[in-house]
């Protein structure tokens, strides 16, 4: 079981995860998703968990991507793996890096995706 710092208990506490409907604003659009939220096992309050938060953001970004016909983070990751492109080290011409297009990046417009497609 995972341990996270609880600001109410002022101590590291074991947490459990619940599903909760949350709305994230992505490029001025509201994206409602079912988030994973950590709750302190001792006091029952919600606590911040960076991994869960990153996963929730990724889900919101992916919902935006699907809505706008963009590649999802999993599709981008599959393309990177197929062509052996790793995120941190691949700087491409024209100040174009793959970092922005990774699993955690905000969705980008079709121009950037087209540019990515032309490079690989
Ligand atoms: Zn607590």
Radius of gyration, Cα only, in angstroms? 18 Å
Gross morphology is: elongated
Main β-sheet, spatial strand arrangement: 1-2-3-4
Query: Secondary-structure element sequence?
Result: EEEEHHEEH
Small-molecule binders = zinc ion
Give the beta-strand count. 6
Features:
binds zinc ion, elongated, 3 helices, Ubiquitin-like (UB roll), 120 residues, two-stranded antiparallel sheet
What do these coordinates show?
With about 120 residues, the protein is of the alpha+beta class. The chain folds into 2 domains: about 5-65, Ubiquitin-like (UB roll); about 75-120. It is about 30% helix and about 30% strand. The chain is built from 3 helices and 6 strands, in the order ββββααββα. It has helices at about 50-65, 75-80, 110-120; strands spanning about 5, 10-25, 30-40, 45, 90, 95. A 4-stranded antiparallel beta sheet has the order 1-2-3-4, covered by helices on one side. It has a two-stranded antiparallel sheet with strand order 5-6. A hairpin with a 2-residue loop joins strand 2 and strand 3. About 15% of the residues are buried. The model is unreliable at about 95-105 (pLDDT under 50). The site of zinc ion has 8 residues, from loops.
